[in-house]
Amino acid sequence: MDWGNVTTEDLIEALREVDWSSPPRPVSEFFARFTVPRSYAKWNSRLKCNLYYYRTNYFIMIVFILGLGFLRRPLAIVAALMTALSIAFLNDSFAGTFSEKVTRTARKFSPHLAAKMRPPLAPVIRGRPSAKRAIHVCGQPRWVFGLLSSAVGFILWFVSCGLLTLLWALAIGLLATLIHASFRTPNLKARLNTFREEFRSVWRNYSEL
User: Side-chain half-sphere of 105: how many Cα atoms within 13 Å?
Assistant: First the structure.
């Protein structure tokens, strides 16, 4: 995959659809080799490749930095978790997995409630879905849970008075991510992984025809 031809919109769409449940890359690989990119095009391609390949590591690193910033504010830690949850709901894989696990747990206590939490069926025309099925969480549109977790997180931020600390910690986390993604040399595993993901995307689009 030529990451130089991948737009920012394509990268965001790929991060939204890709599975985030995969474990993070090993620390020895994460901090293996760093070099200065020779040109802007090389830097642009490297940045996008690393953001995609080390996405789980960057997410954990940002959450860890946020946690360090709120060691003396336990309520702010809960607010950070709620904010991270609202962002995670934007990912299709996470939203689907979260809904499935909650529904499975609810089925043990109330099968009737679990039946109501199933996502609605997409209309079928001539044996095929008429459109791409929208993502639902526990029977409700995904934006409902995203908005709810965002509202709870905002209230907790306001109560804990940790908004300024949040901005500083988030800025440090994003800066650390940018620096690492800019200077970490993509290895062969990263290139093979992106080729595999590209094949899966092409095959998924072909199967929907």
Answer: 6
Show the 3-state SS of 12-44: HHHHHHCCCCCCCCCHHHHCCCECCCCCHHHHH
Choice between 56 and 114, residue whose per-residue pLDDT is larger: 56
Q: Are 181 and 3 in contact (CB under 8 A)?
A: no
Q: Which helix (H) or strand (E) holds 136?
A: strand 136-137
Cα distances (Å, whole numbers) of residue 144 to 15, 134, 137, 149, 155? 21, 13, 8, 9, 17
Report pLDDT digits (tens) over 130-150: 555 677 788 788 888 888 988
Beta strands 128-129 and 124-125 are antiparallel
Helix, strand, or coil (residue 128): strand
| Contact of 199 with 207, CB cutoff 8 Å | no
